[in-house]
UniProtKB/TrEMBL annotation:
Family under the similarity heading: Belongs to the biopterin-dependent aromatic amino acid hydroxylase family.
Regions annotated as coiled coil: none
Keyword Cell membrane applies: no
Protein name: Aromatic amino acid hydroxylase
Organism (species): Nonlabens mediterrranea
PANTHER family xrefs: AROMATIC AMINO ACID HYDROXYLASE, PHENYLALANINE-4-HYDROXYLASE
Length: 550
């Protein structure tokens, strides 16, 4: 998978579930027209952005190996990015948001290898190499911004998603691919598909759903990384990749009719429409403020709050997630149930299907999916009558309450959950506190319900007073086979007609003239006339010729 990428130490650290998204760039598939599109956008952008972009933009182009005349290759970018501690990989269009952010956490830029078609030269809803390489890469030359991007990925990859998020991701991916489909002639069927896709996005946007953590943090990502301004409200500079890569919006965003708002955590609750120009933008006074707001938002997330709300988010997500208990024990799986007390404290939780236990992001030996293939459950909290949690018991306490290996024991939690069985053994964390106790011939009851019985096998009781963290994904990525759902919407590869092949031949001829410095004005004038008569829609080719004629 990595055979076409310049070796960069950061790439070697990637876990398998991220490597699966990496695709060869296939540089040879770029047409001469594609190269002309890149050159046109970069020439126009660099000239304009040198006046309105953040100060690190021009320097960043050099530091990230991006030239005006040629589409960048992953080889060159990785060789140069390595010097500033980053790397780059090519992917096929949109990838799931959690994966995108996790790449950032590893300090790796995700670059969609395709390039926009001529019709969408000013703006494309699809991620392309102009947006990713010329938009995202240059600003990471600013150390403050680069650290913000890394930290954002670290926090964002833990955000809990919803089923609605997945629907929206698929809908946006679909419309971006459809709008970048290359068709020589008017295609009524394609127009119909685009209209249907736009209607689907509008339907999803109008759907009344509780925003998930992922949807909120994606808003923050949009209003900063993609469409952010920096400086003052009166004189902002561009740094968002969506603005830096758009010929049209890089200019229109500075006009008075686009509202400029001071950047704050409020941006997390402001939705956006990827198919249209933005009616308002947020301005941060500096990149340090971005990090401050990110930390403020992170303090609202289940990864830091834990508790019943965090667990409920995981249950609602119906996706693989992890909770961490106060002892440090981490349980990963698909959470399906919890019981809370009158104070909304979780006193029991349950997963269904393959689950795994870990400590400090490393799977506990003997507690992987094969051991817990049918799920995991456990009560939590303090013991009744002694107001003490098992994790806080010292050796004398354990002895006093009969917590001996190979001894039968019966105890009741403050919640009323009762455990009775043969204590086999315990497992401790680095601080010496019990975090797991194994029982056989065990029964767990709550009121009139049997939560666990001897027929269920061995009970692995999780020791912990409370849930201190809850987040998306597993604690140890190697515990699960993390093959993401492969999107049904595939990038549509162009098939060129004889006419289009002839056009590409003309672009090649003009590029050859430029590179070899062969300026034959009569020949170029003749070529220009041919293009205007036979291919009137190829304005970019005429522009290329005019530049040579002078």
């Amino acid at each position: 998978m990595l055979e076409n990428i310049e070796i960069n130490p950061l790439l070697e650290r990637l876990p398998p579930h991220l490597k699966q998204f990496i695709k060869p760039q296939n540089y040879e598939l770029y047409t001469y027209q594609d190269q002309a599109v890149w050159r046109h956008v970069m020439r126009k952008n660099v000239d304009f952005l040198s006046k309105v972009a953040h100060g690190s933009y021009l320097d960043g182009l050099k530091k990230t190996g991006i030239s005006i005349d040629n589409i960048p290759s992953m080889y060159g970018m990785n060789r140069i990015l390595k010097e500033i501690g980053w790397a780059a990989v090519a992917v096929d269009g949109f990838i799931p948001p959690a994966a995108f952010m996790e790449f950032q956490a590893y300090k790796i830029l995700v670059i969609a290898a395709n390039i926009r078609k001529l019709d969408n030269i000013e703006y494309t809803p699809a991620p392309d190499i102009i947006h990713e390489a010329a938009g995202h890469a240059p600003i990471i030359a600013s150390p403050d911004y680069a650290e913000y991007l890394r930290r954002f990925g670290e926090i964002g990859s833990k955000a809990i998603s919803s089923a609605h998020d997945h629907e929206m991701y698929e809908a946006v991916r679909k419309i971006s691919i459809l709008k970048e489909t290359r068709s020589e002639k008017k295609d009524a069927a394609l127009d119909e598909k685009i209209a249907a896709a736009e209607a689907d996005i509008e339907r999803l946007q109008n759907k009344k759903v509780e925003p998930s953590e992922m949807s909120l943090i994606r808003n923050l990502h949009w209003w900063t990384v993609e469409y952010g301004l920096v400086g003052t409200l009166e004189n902002p500079k561009l740094y968002g990749a969506g603005l830096l890569s758009s010929l049209g919006e890089s200019k229109s965003c500075l006009e008075p009719n686009v509202e400029k708002r001071p950047y704050s955590i409020d941006a997390a609750y402001q939705d956006f429409d990827i198919t249209r120009k933005q009616p308002h933008l947020y301005v941060t006074p500096n990149f340090a403020t971005l990090s401050e707001v990110l930390e403020e938002f992170a303090n609202t997330m289940a990864v830091r709050k834990g508790g019943h709300r965090g667990l409920q988010k995981l249950i609602n997500s119906k996706s693989l997630g992890t909770i961490e208990l106060s002892t440090g024990l981490q349980i990963s799986g698909h959470f399906t149930r919890m019981i809370t007390n009158d104070d909304n404290e979780v006193v029991f939780f349950e997963t269904r299907g393959e689950s795994a236990l870990a400590y400090r992001e490393k799977e506990l030996i003997g507690h992987g999916r094969s051991t817990h293939k049918n799920g995991f459950l456990s009560p939590l909290g303090k013991l009744k009558g002694i107001n003490l949690a098992i994790e806080d018991m010292g050796p004398r306490d354990l002895q006093a309450y009969n917590f001996y290996d190979n001894e039968r024991i019966e105890f009741t939690y403050e919640s009323g959950i009762k455990v009775e069985g043969l204590n086999v053994t315990g497992q401790r964390n680095l601080n010496g506190k019990l975090m797991l106790i194994q029982f056989t011939d065990c029964t767990v009851t709550y009121k009139d319900e049997i939560l666990f019985s001897p027929e269920n096998g061995m009970l692995n009781l999780a020791v912990g007073k409370e849930i201190v963290s809850a987040y998306a994904g597993p604690a140890d990525y190697y515990s699960f086979d993390l093959v993401f759902h492969e999107s049904d919407t595939k990038t549509i590869k162009p098939v060129f007609s004889k006419r289009e092949i002839a056009i590409q031949g003309l672009y090649e001829k003009v590029r050859t003239y430029r590179e070899e410095d062969k300026i034959n004005k009569p020949l170029l004038e003749k070529l220009k006339t041919q293009v205007e008569n036979d291919y009137p829609e190829q304005w970019l080719l005429v522009e290329e010729i005019n530049e040579l004629i002078g």
